[in-house]
Amino acid sequence: MTIVVCKVLLGAILTLFNLGTTVNASAAQESAARNSATVSSNAPGIENARIETRRVVGTLTATMAEVEKDAARPMWVGYAVKAVAGERTVCCSNYSDSRGESCGQGELETDRDHSNNSSNKKGAGAVKLEGGEELLVLFRLADRHLTRIKVASQDCVLDAGGLAFVWLTDVKPAESVAVLGEFVRRENLAGHTRQSIGNEALTAIALHDGQEADVALESFTGPAQPEELRKHAAFWLGAARGKEGLLALQRMAKKDTSAEVRAHVAFALSISKESAALEEMIRMAHEDESGHVRGQAIFWLAQKAGNRAVSAIDSAIASDPDTEVEKQAVFALSQLPKDEGVPKLIQVAENNRNPEVRKQAMFWLGQSQDPRALGFFEKVLLK
What are the tens digits of pLDDT across the range 33-79? Predict the structure, then answer.
């Protein structure tokens, strides 16, 4: 009897032990699954790839260096950061300052940036980078060095072309800006194409949220930087950086010693969404020492239209001391909506004191194909 009881008790103990072990193992598996989900929760949709998730250990620079050492064959590395506020799309490196574009699938292993906007897979739909949305920063490595940088919106499905893909977590935005900034400084953008690594890095910085990105972009506008880099930085200050970008552009408009760069600043101001950008464009049209810059400011004012812009164009035609600037202002009138531009061109053609300016006005009237222009020419020719 005693032996039987002992066997029963031993069996019960073993059953409880096994049950406890099973429960603990199950709990451990569930915990691991939860931790894995936490690590990869902000990972994009990645297809056709061998995916590995790693935490950044130490610094992003050190982690990237470790990955790069192992990149004998082509591979991709990516991470997510908070995107700068604003209404724009970044569809697998195709940037657009608009809303409603469908992202679809981005093919990373193509010679050109590509997105299949007709895709109905995960990620298709409106892409909006507004406050709180995330930007994907993607690096292509091969032969143990960097070959490309791309950016994409969070819901873009990425086709990695069968390559390994390392997804990094716990990336600090400030470290991301610093790493990208090194690529910009290394290349300086002088003489490089649109898809140079430096220019790609600059684009990625411009779309990061935070003061670090503002500071980095303005650092590339300093007098010691190459002109091409200053131009590219000016574009992104206007296109993506809001009020802080406008303040930087205003400083460039007054202090940059290159007329070519200041002319590009006029364009950057024209794409800024800040209302005060118009004020600076008008100031440049009146006050810049370079006729080329004044002419460019007038041209971009015409694209903005509006009463204040038209007034600045009229003023340039009437009083600018440079005939070329006056002619540029006449061209700007031709860019206005016809109900505004054609009557003003007729007025210039009839009354301006400068025969070169009158001739320019007549030329653009002829190009307008407007019935009012035909009436003007009939009156002049049949006198």
Answer: 333 333 344 567 888 889 999 999 899 999 999 999 989 999 999 99
Running DSSP on this structure, what letter comes out for residue 84?
P
- Cβ proximity of 288 and 294 under 8 Å: yes
CA-wise closest residue to 86 among 99, 75, 77? 99
- Mean pLDDT (the chain, rounded): 81
Rounded to 10 deg, the angle between the 291-304 and 259-271 helix axes is 10
- Taking only the tens place, the pLDDT of each residue in 284-294 is 999 999 999 99
Which token pair is 16? 């409880």
What's the alpha-carbon Rg for the chain, to the nearest Å?
Answer: 30
Task: Specify the amino acid at residue 9.
Answer: L
How far apart are the C-alpha atoms of 366 and 373, rounded to whole Å? 7
Pairwise CA distance, residues 47 & 189, whole Å: 32
Residue pair 117/103 in contact by the 8 Å Cβ criterion: yes
Residues 6+ apart with CB under 8 A from 260: 227, 231, 292
| Angstrom distance (rounded) from CA 70 to CA 56 | 16
CA atoms of 196 and 204, how far apart (whole Å): 12
Q: DSSP secondary structure string, 247-283?
A: HHHHHHHHH---HHHHHHHHHHHHH---THHHHHHHH
Report CA-CA distances (Å) from 82 to 13, 79, 135: 54, 10, 6
DSSP bridge pairs for 105: 116, 157
